[in-house]
Amino acid sequence: MNFAVLQFPASNCDQDAVHVLRNVLGHSARLVWHKDTSLGGADAVIVPGGFSYGDYLRTGAIARFSPVMQAVQAFAAHGGLVLGICNGFQILCEAGLLPGALIRNRSLQFRCEHIFLRAPTPDSPFTNRIPAGQLLRVPIAHGEGCYFADDTTLGQLRAQNRILWQYVDAAGQPTDAANPNGSLDNIAGICNERRNVAGLMPHPERAAEGLLGSADGRLIFESLLHELTARAARPPAA
Amino acid sequence: MPDPVITPALIKQHGLTPEEFERIRGILEREPNLTELGIFSVMWSEHCSYKNSRPLLKQFPTKSPKILVGAGEENAGIIDIGDGLAIAFKIESHNHPSAVEPFQGAATGVGGIIRDIFTMGARPVCAVNSLRFGPITTVDGSPAGPAVLKNRRLFTGVVAGIAHYGNCFGIPTIAGEVYFDASYEGNPLVNAFCLGVLRHEQIARGAAKGIGNPVFYVGPATGRDGLAGAAFASQDLTEESAEQQRGAVQVGDPFMEKLVMEACLELLATGAVAGIQDMGAAGLTCSTCETAARAGTGIEIDLAKVPQRAPNMTPYEIMLSESQERMLIIVHKGREEEVKRIFDKWDLPWAEIGFVTDTSRMVVKNHGVVVADIIARKLADEAPVYQREAREPAYLAAVRAFRLTGVPDTTDPAGNLNTLLAWPTIASKNWVYRQYDHMVRDGSVVCPGSDAAVIRIKADSLPTAADATAAVTEKYLALKVDCNAVYVYLDPYEGAKTVVAEVARNLACAGAVPLGSTDNLNYGNPHNPEIFWQLRESVRGLAEACRAFNAPVTGGNVSLYNQNPGGPIDPTPTVAMVGLVEKLEHVTTQWFKDAGDAIILLGEIADRQDPLLGLGGSAYLQRVHGLKTGSPPRCDLEREANLHLALRGLIHTGVVKSAHDCSDGGLAVALAECCISRPIARETPGLIGAVIDLSGYGDLRQDALLFGESQGRVVISVAPLHAAKVIAQAQALGVLASRLGTVGGSALQITTSAGKLEGDTRGLHDHWWHALARAMSGE
Predict the structure, then answer these.
(1) Domain annotation for chain A: domains and CATH numbers
(2) Which of B8, B178, B323, B344 lies at 20 to 30 Å from B705 by C-alpha?
(3) CB A72 within 8 Å of CB A29
(4) Does residue A199 contact residue A189 with C-beta atoms inside 8 Å?
(5) Range B596-602 average pLDDT
(6) Mutate to test the interface with B, among A34, A85, A112 (most CBs of B within 10 A)
């Protein structure tokens, strides 16, 4: 499969995403510069972490205006798979591709640590390979990862099974102590209504190799690949 | 504005002595103007010239077959790590700025050291830091007074500043150390280290080569911030100087730095660059005269072409500004377009400001009018050198005479253990490192919290190359920074040896062989003979120890004048060391792994030749008895080096499951850390108990046995069936090894001839893990 990994000025997890897709999972991944207007025929798009444009206005607030985001909007509108990680999640929210917002961590401090994630539903292109009940041990690294949305949005996310990842404790419970940033409902990641665009604050690309302490994050990429393979096998829609 | 008359008062204000001023007149063969006076004052500051420390630094071992660029040659040293790869690393202080403005002071310290590394053509891949503050808790738990509150504020600001810069730049801050001691009250230390990776053929030089080559300025515009910061850093810190010098603190922009780095590495890959240097301390002044001096050429620039942030800046201000994230690049003539293309791509300002000449002079013009004209080499390399007077400090007589006779043995070892685990200097530093992104770049094999951090070097750790086709062999590097300054205060020579020994031991525990080291010498005012004696004696110890562990010094930094009206800091020669772990399977962590494993001590249980049995300068005496005295533990370099060799040998056989060195807090703290330091996830520590039998050491005082800090000791664990063999192998390698007990259960139980110490692992973990967060929240 061909992945496009967006590169904004001061993206800093772009190389990590490419490394995992290319060297760990054996697929093709290409960096797409923020001034580009085309995604070059990619099968899926990764919006990586970092501090796009220094995050000076608001995290992700400037990135949404870059030329490449127009291409991502169109790609998503056609059903293409888009995954935003950390700052990428923030950019997708700012761009209106995902609802809600990521605000300052409850602790007011940047947090980098391993957390446990639970995927409440396998029904998405991003979670279909995660066995029911399995916890993923994945790191977070963010200062503004507290997911916030109004009650209506939150109600829709719940009703439509669009909460894809939640922070949980070692027993799989979404407790307050397990919540590293104060996110509503312990939300770590969500998808859009059409289920083709998702974002999460944790870094699955940092947990894709045993030597880094966990390979659980691979399940998220493998879910994506599973969906892409299924789509490729399907006859094109009329 | 006419140039002011150079008066004795103005000379003094620039930190120059009348003799130094005479020397300047001799070099110029005329009177200097104000701009030239400013230029000399920053270049001849201790920060830039090492005028007080240079003769001492000559003692350091600086050569090995692996060293590709040695100490003092360039902005950072470079070491061969095999397979065509090399590393550049260096540590540098940002103490004074951090005392005045902790957030920006620390942030720009990180920015500055990162620039030193990519200036060498290397891609920065990890950061490390060493921090010191006054106490953040009161001894008796009483409410914090203004001093403690200020220490907390400095600590908070410095950590947030480092986090801000490093996280945004995208570099993992992978290791570090934090000490708290009253001597750092008002004089915090912020030493920042960075390591980068490159191919041998990618080494860039800070030399203005090629007569006629154009000189480019790249990066953000020059402002009035950071005026003469290097000179500020080279004087005592007083309320007055801090207030006056607030303008000497620079403001950092990690976003800009990230772009400048990517653009510079991209440009270096084109081969268009003849020389490159960052504008760090002393900014444009230092970068122009040093590049010319290195190449034996001259350089001419016109300040009117320098991008400027403020209107009406004088030549003096432009030359002395320390605005951040700026680089000077000398480009091969005819290849100017490549600079423009790449810097435009990254939306970065650039300007062609001058050219290389054959005059050996640094000529600075402003709108065509000469405002400074100095022989570059004389400015860069011929700073005065002082052999300061040294005198043994008076306090040492009492230190040496101290004995344990007046100190009753412990009656509450379990309570002492909890107290020590919660002492901020010993407690877990997770409150600090969880604020640093320590995993970006997908290379953090061992994260902060073990003896040494380990990172993986892979293909994308390297700078862009024109022909990036060759496969890159993955490498594993271990890093550690350390300095027990109390030991150095109590015995500068012996203490300094111990500093190096401890760093090297930490690397050995991780399975690494030292490649080289970099040091940051933080001291008080060298004009005080007692302080100069501390400096002289500790450099002697450092040099000897670096030789013993084959860890040549590739560079570093000297920070003097770390004193305020309250007194000087403890002598703090921070040492960062980098080692190579040959194979991934050799990487070893400090925490116990499996129930049933045998716990073995490598080394003597205590140094019985030491009248204080390892308690001199110990955390135990400081925290429990309020005594910061006694000769510190002795450091036998030969024995220590042999221990490291044996430990690595055992690790290579594949049987060592954990290795942790005994340092602050002694054996009991080390064992507790083995039980409680394994991180699994947020709110989920990996706890495992241990049953230890020390009843055979009834000849030792209990406090010395449990909390003594005798050197040369490592706790390892191995599967039970390997225990006897490992003990025999260690003995065959000349290292005493003894079985201490067994891993397992939910408590740490230590039996001594005097009784039993028992601590539930959950409770021990709570004391140790949450101590800093509790202190900082005022609990």
Answers:
(1) 2-233 (3.40.50.880)
(2) B178
(3) no
(4) yes
(5) 98
(6) A112
